[in-house]
Design brief:
alpha+beta, 3 helices, 37% strand, 5-stranded antiparallel beta sheet, Nuclear Transport Factor 2, Chain: A
Length: 126
């Protein structure tokens, strides 16, 4: 499990490269130093997911935020298709919360793991 999260976080860092290059711009993405999901971010996530059918997204970490006319959030999520025996996956979920508090999904990007990421099924549950 730790391998999955580490790989996903590293992949997510590609979306916030201006922060790591020391070129933080107004409106640029700000990587979170503490990936815990605070109340505001959780409320935005829950409001955006309301009414979404077919896939359940469980936020694991808040990777980055972006201040615009409101706030954009980038969450690392565990995703599960709502069917029997579904195998969970992982995705980056981008949520926008406007200044009035209304939230919506901007984008969902499934994380594709290449061959060799998991040596066996047990590695997925560590």
């Amino acid at each position: 499990m730790k391998k999955i999260i580490a790989a996903a976080v590293l992949a997510g860092m590609m979306f916030v490269t201006p922060v790591f290059a020391g070129q933080m711009m107004t409106g640029g993405w700000q990587a979170t130093t503490d990936t815990a999901i605070d109340e505001d971010a959780q409320a935005a996530f829950d409001a955006a997911m309301e009414g979404l059918l077919g896939v359940e997204y469980e936020p694991i970490d808040l990777l980055a935020t972006q201040v615009v006319a409101g706030t954009n959030y980038c969450f690392l999520c565990r995703s599960t298709v709502v069917v029997p025996d579904a195998v969970p996956g992982y995705a980056f979920v981008y949520v926008y919360k406007d200044l009035s508090g209304k939230a919506e999904i901007l984008d969902i990007q499934d994380i594709e793991f290449g061959a060799g990421v998991f040596e066996d099924e047990e590695a997925m549950t560590e």
